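Researcher: Here's the sequence for the chain we discussed earlier.
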Amino acid sequence: MTTVPTKPTAAPRRAARSDGDATRQHILDIAGQVFAERGFADATSKEICARAEVNMASVNYHFGSRGELYEAVLVEAHHHLLQPEAMLAIAQAAGDPRDKLRAVLARIVDHVTGPRAHWGSRVVMRELLSPTEHAPVLVHKAIAPKAKILLGIASDILGLPATHPGVQRALFFMMSPCLAMLVAPRELRTGVLPAIASDADVLLEDLLAYALAGMEAIARRYRQQ
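Model: Thanks. This is the structure I predict for it:
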């Protein structure tokens, strides 16, 4: 009696792919830490691979080059600050747009006042303060899609079309304090202006009040035209 050979399953291939994804994510996390500490110019693939405990070919295999690794880190870093899926869920939910804005600002305040900052905020701030040739990737792949979501929320609050120039300016003014808090050294937030870091809930409500008051003033100005 002959036996029909069984068809090999795809489990080993799936396992290999899963291992590859895990290795890629591990390299990404370690690279984020190194770029946060040293900046793009001074971070080397050699140090990243040594700290990640992978061979030197891993960066090129998983990312293509050190520059492309840095671009992936930039996008990952910004997504850690504001996850696009979470923002989209907030924007699409029913409810007052002011509450949606509060939910977005709450995530930023959590990063600012948290006990241990993720490397993502430092990487993003380094790039914004001292842009490299890779800045357009951060803008187009990470910032622009989220700005579009925020423009929708701002539009609903202002009662103006999302394409209105006043909405764009209002969004920029609204997010500027958030950038300032992220850039501010911890010593400033804990020593010189300790109230910034002492009570996250009160900070959130003050930030929201500040943003909404400014947006109301802008909306009133355009209603009078």
